[in-house]
């Protein structure tokens, strides 16, 4: 089962939760990765705190990653 750190609202670190997550099938032009490394940047803190609004919740923080392509849409 795939898991992700998700947030359902803005706030402090307590709004981050490790949850089961179904990424679904990739759409045309998308890929699904098996992440091997991720970058967490200060923009993610801004998103979590609500300083820079996110388009929708729940949200998965992070804008960088490296891994292996598992599936192509």
Determine the oligomeric state from the structure. Answer: single chain
Number of strands: 4
Name of the top-level CATH class: Alpha Beta
Q: Number of helical runs?
A: 1
How many domain regions?
Answer: 1
Chain-averaged pLDDT: 94
Q: Give the C-alpha Rg.
A: 13 Å
Low-confidence stretches: none
Would you give the CATH topology?
Answer: Quinone Oxidoreductase, Chain A, domain 1
Q: Can you summarize the main beta sheet?
A: 2 strands, antiparallel
- Helix content estimate: 10-25%
Shape: globular
Q: Could you state the order of secondary-structure elements as H and E?
A: EEEHE
Helix/strand/pairing class, anyone? Answer: mainly beta
CATH superfamily: Medium-chain alcohol dehydrogenases, catalytic domain
Strand order of the largest sheet: 1-2
Distance between the termini: 20 Å
Strand content: 35-45%
The CATH architecture name reads Alpha-Beta Complex
Describe this structure in words.
The protein has one helix and four strands; from the N terminus they run βββαβ. The strands form two sheets. Strands 1-2 form a two-stranded antiparallel sheet. A two-stranded antiparallel ribbon has the order 3-4. The chain has one domain: Quinone Oxidoreductase, Chain A, domain 1. β1 and β2 form a beta hairpin. With 73 residues, the chain is mainly beta. Helices cover 11% and strands 38% of the residues. The chain is globular, with a radius of gyration of 13 Å. The protein has one helix at residues 42-49; strands at 3-7, 16-20, 31-39, 64-72. The mean pLDDT is 94.
């Amino acid at each position: 089962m795939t898991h992700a750190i998700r947030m359902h609202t803005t706030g402090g670190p307590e709004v981050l939760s490790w949850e089961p997550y179904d990424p679904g099938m990739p759409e045309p032009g998308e890929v699904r990765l098996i992440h091997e490394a991720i970058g967490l940047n200060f923009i993610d803190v801004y998103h979590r705190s609500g300083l820079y609004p996110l388009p929708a919740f729940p949200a998965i923080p992070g804008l960088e990653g490296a891994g292996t392509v598992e599936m192509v849409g």
